[in-house]
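Database export, one record per block. Field names are fixed; values are copied verbatim from the stored entry.
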Amino acid sequence: MLKIKIAPSILSCDFSRLADEIKRLEGAGADLVHIDVMDGNFVPNITIGPDIVKAIKDNTSLILDVHLMINEPLKLAKRFIDAGADILTFHVEAQENPLILIKEIKKANIKVGLSLKPKTPLLRIKDFLEEIDMVLIMSVEPGFGGQSFMSEVLPKIRALRKIFERDIEVDGGINDKNAKEVILAGANVIVAGSYVFRSADIRKAIESLRKCAE
């Protein structure tokens, strides 16, 4: 069984205290830092760019899990690679020929992931599964934090786990009430933003998610 990894999303953190928030994640036992990059085009929101990714990289030893929610990610991927991404994930819906970008990311000797919106079928990524390290299944429509988990993605997670032996990450509306069913479906990388950062004790929040695998 793959290790359960918790990847808090800084989309929900206090950006005025970003360095402190990252240190809090380190102390609380997070496995990765999930960084949502939005361009105001592929999704309606705009978030952070490569300079912020570099600043985070310079201040933590945690794995940087960078999720590109941008159109034509091939044009900007190198900047995020150079900024220090350890895992670079892009949306299959946003890249006309995903294999080109997959190969570019692999050349940089970092991990590559493909992401799917909730309604995008697995068929869109089946031809690329042997080339990638992770699949990120969105359990909300990408663009904003604080949304409710869409349980209709659970059959997709189950179907993917039957044909994919590497990391399956799920992002959107996850908390201690639904993380168990996500893990039982086959996910092993759990993204949680609001649940972690709005908790009075982020260590307990992260531990509660990890315990859902027991």
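Remark 1: Residues 149 and 186 are 16 Å apart (CA to CA).
Remark 2: The chain has a mean pLDDT of 95.
End of record.
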